[in-house]
Design brief:
Structural class: alpha/beta
Helix content: 25-40%
Radius of gyration: 22 Å
Largest sheet: 8 strands, mixed
Distance between the termini: 25 Å
Low-confidence stretches: 459-463
């Protein structure tokens, strides 16, 4: 990889060296095409990012989980000689807070067994209704779903409230779904939530499972290694510190302009989130539909934390490290990587929680998190040896979490533009996948799909 070049002429230019862009570039190479990847950051990996613990071990502050059905991630890990391991191997009781009291529950129940019989029945019926709606939605063409307009004009929060009789069932379903999408339940349309779940199998309880679910495994050394190995294969075809400012296209091809790099190509794959893609100047202008789509799909707000201790002391008390607060929505979990004696508690703060947290001072943020953990795990939680936090919305070349947020009306009015090429400009990114939206797997698949569009529409001699 190199930092600065002057100009290049290739078959395919790629904007963004996250998993989607690198997947597209690798697929271009496999199809015999020349390629240049332009990355604004000084690193590859996009929203996969490694941080070092005090003992030199790696912790992920970005995407980290893979699970059954995510075949490309497992295949690449094997190809690159990377080991996977169970993300949550330590069993024990979970902790839940309700009404100011903390109580223990079996970890595998994820809080459900703390419900009364009435609350449990309410949850089961609303989940069944939700999954029946999911079955009606094709993630590739959600706007064609039966009653798509009605599904898209209602927020997830409104629908759950109308279909539950207990606050516990409402809170659990909204938290399970919206937290996974780095937003709040009132931020997104019901249709958006159905699309996301349909892309990963259609089951609410399967979505939040550890074993045999999307959170089953991690990659030893961090998931960013997958991107780094892909980039190493591409070598000097990956150019870092090269934010794309402008893309021009005509009937013959495209020209991609950075500060110090100009790339002429037959086609370009823009593999950055829509909100970032909208900052690029396009000549001629993109279609009105595409512009309006990008204006409505910001990335969700997500802050991820790793609170590090000398050892995972909670296991001594027969605890799994999982803690859920019904009052505040705060959730923590044992995120200790394999191969270290340290103990790491992970925390996700989505949506409003991330926004509120971001307004606090450094000292206030630390005190807030440690206050929650001390309530859950005891006095030992007040004395971490490291405190790692990353607000993804504050990152210049991310500006948000791992999923897009589509409010009412977005999908039925403008959703068809999410993958639709604009002339010689093609779109990739996890949000544009029809499988595993918001996951690393979805990003990889989107890159391959973008290259298939190029090569199927344009023979090798007419790229």
């Amino acid at each position: 990889m190199e930092d600065i070049v002057n100009s290049r002429v290739v078959d395919v230019a790629v904007v963004g060296a996250g998993l989607a862009g690198l997947s597209a570039a690798r697929e271009a190479r496999r199809r015999g095409l020349s390629v240049t990847v332009l990355e604004a950051r000084d690193k590859v990996g996009g929203k996969t990012l490694a941080a070092l613990l005090p003992d030199g071990s790696v912790i992920e502050v970005g995407g980290q989980y893979i699970g059954p059905g995510q075949t490309m991630m497992y295949r690449l890990a094997e190809e690159f000689g990377l080991e996977t391991y169970r993300a949550h191997p330590h069993t024990g009781d979970a902790l839940a807070e309700s009404g100011g009291q903390v109580f223990r529950i079996p970890a595998e129940a994820v809080g459900v067994t703390s419900f009364s019989e009435e609350e449990q029945r309410d949850l089961e019926q609303v989940v069944a209704k939700f999954e029946n709606l999911v079955a009606l939605v094709d993630p590739g063409k959600p706007w064609d779903a039966i009653n798509a307009d009605e599904l898209d004009r209602t927020t997830l929060d409104e629908w759950v409230r109308a279909n539950t009789t207990t606050s516990a069932a409402h809170g659990f379903l909204c938290m399970a779904i919206a937290t996974n999408y780095s937003c709040d339940a009132w931020d997104i349309s019901l249709l958006h939530s159905l699309i996301m779940l349909a892309s990963e199998g259609g089951s609410v309880m399967e979505m939040i499972k550890y074993d045999d679910g999307p959170q089953q495994d991690r990659i030893l050394g961090g998931s960013q290694l997958v991107a780094e190995r892909m980039a190493a294969e591409l070598g000097d075809d990956v150019v870092l510190n090269a934010p794309v400012r402008r893309i021009e296209q005509d009937a013959e091809g495209v020209v991609v302009y950075c500060d110090d790099v100009t790339v002429s190509a037959g086609h370009v794959v823009v593999a950055v989130p829509p909100a970032l893609a909208s900052r690029i100047r396009y000549t001629p202008d993109l279609s009105v539909g595409r512009e309006l789509f990008t204006q409505r799909v910001a990335n969700g707000h997500m802050t991820k934390l790793a609170v590090v201790y000398p050892r995972p002391f909670w296991r001594d008390d027969g605890l799994s490290g999982l803690y859920m607060s019904e009052t505040s929505g705060f959730t923590a979990f044992d995120n200790t990587p394999t191969g270290t004696d340290l103990g790491v508690v992970g925390v996700f703060l989505p949506g409003r929680d991330a926004a509120d947290y971001g307004y606090l001072s450094t000292e206030q943020r630390r005190a807030t998190i440690l206050g929650h953990l001390t309530t859950a795990l005891g006095a030992a939680a007040a004395e971490p040896i490291d405190f790692i936090e990353l607000d993804w919305a504050a990152q210049t070349w991310s500006r948000g979490g791992h999923n897009i947020v589509a409010g009412p009306g977005t999908w039925t009015k403008f959703g068809m533009h999410i993958r639709q090429p604009e002339g010689r400009i093609h779109w990739a990114g996890s949000e544009s996948s029809t499988e595993w939206l918001g996951y690393m797997e979805g990003a990889l698949r989107s890159g391959i799909r973008a290259l298939a569009e190029i090569t199927s529409d344009h023979p090798r001699t007419n790229l």
